[in-house]
Amino acid sequence: MSSADRPREVVVVGGGISGLAAAHALHQAAGPAVRVTVLEKAADVGGHLRLVEVAGIGVDGGAESLLNRRPEAVDLVRAVGLGDDLVHPADVGAGLWSRGNVVPLPVGTVMGVPTGPRTLGAVLSAAEIHRVEQDRTRPGMPLHEDVAIGRLVADRMGRAVVDRLVDPLLGGVYAGRADELSLRATVPALAEAAGRHGSLLDAARSVAAASAAGATAAPFFAGIRGGVGRLPAAVASASGAQIRTDVTVRTLGPAGPDAGVRWRLEVGPAPFPETIDADAVIVAVPAAPTARLLRDVAPRAAADLARVEYASVAIVTVALPKSAFATLPELSGFLVPSVEGRVVKAVTLSSVKWPWLTADARDMVVLRASLGRHRDEADLQHDDAELVRSVMVELGEALGVTGRPVDSRVTRWGGALPQYAVGHADRMVRVRAAVEAVPGLGVCGAAYDGVGIAACIAGGRRAATTVLDGLGVVPVSTA
Known about the structure:
Layout (H helix, E strand, L loop, with lengths): L7 E6 L3 H14 L3 E6 L11 E4 L2 E4 L5 E2 L3 H9 L6 E2 L5 E6 L2 E4 L4 E2 L2 E2 L11 H8 L15 H9 L1 H16 L8 H4 L1 H7 L5 H15 L6 E4 L6 H8 L3 E3 L4 E6 L8 E5 L6 E5 L1 E4 L3 H8 L4 H7 L4 E12 L9 E5 L8 E5 L1 H4 L1 H7 L2 E8 L12 H16 L7 E12 L5 H13 L4 E3 L2 H4 L3 H19 L8
Parallel strand pairs: 1-2, 1-16, 2-12, 7-18, 16-22
Antiparallel strand pairs: 3-4, 5-11, 6-11, 7-8, 9-10, 13-14, 14-15, 17-20, 17-21, 18-19, 19-20
Helix pairs in contact: 1-9, 1-17, 2-17, 4-5, 7-8, 10-11, 11-15
């Protein structure tokens, strides 16, 4: 076989959902024209999607839901044979543990930014609601630059809105701080509207109206019966890729003029290195290791990626007897504002939220508590038993839970969530431009265009398209 006829070798560095989605997209688009190898440093693929067992029940120890109204994730679930197991949450509301009580999370906000005062009475005082209404008299909008969303909201609507609404909602997604997170990167629709309106209330109202006009009857979120953690193995199996785990990529560089390929990767321990040659490489690992690998091949991209900070978190999953609750709340869970000074940042009542888990749990209640926040990970230094004790104390205060759990599991995610600081969107535009200027190179992952599963899958597909275009491989559907 001549070099022109041989399959192109593509290496994907990283076996999280982004890298696996890239591998799957390569296989779907190019078929036998490419051979894909996925290199994952952990013992299993999946990244932050993982199944754990509590009281004999398999549950998610990482992300547990995906956007149902965005097609990338649900389409991939169906494509890899899990479509019959797509499920939707129970029709119950969410709560907020604020000022000593768990109250319904106010509706009619855009990531916690109010569209009006009508639904805020359970969370804000009359004076705090009046401060929200003063937004329309304040100067400074329309807005024409990226800002920290928390600082903008505090200036226009008061500190209480940030502390009681925006910060817990953003914290639930990014484990970050509203005063440092970018408006443009975290809530782009609101950023765009803030550039057109004279008040933040009006901007938020326009976003909410547009969302309602475009909404369908389909539920907003979806899950997978048995856990979203089932998805990585199914994608890996359907990708046609060679999956190699327990493999750390140490360096990435040009293969040299006589190699017949573009890239050479060095993997394995330093005393016993192995080299892998490839026509194209997709780097699908967090920003810091990506920056190290790209330092010599795309230095401008590496410099921007090196600036992305990450938050560490832990998920404490407990199984409780139903008798631990005087009355089981009809809530999917509740958020906890950081201003409350609690260890727990959010709680999901998993066996209330997911009907399949209600059946599996039988006479138990399975719930999970999220802990940890950017630059505030001291609570995570405690051992597992202490974390479980802290969670149980706070569950007692919030929900009146008594007794001891039947079983528990602590899942730690070090450096799990990238922080989208002010200017993040522009930095990622520069990163992509620098990477896409290098033939046969692509990047994807949660650091770029969103931390959710759908966004990560979309990024993997984009990286696959980029490297196939660079290789001149014609998609099989149009060949």
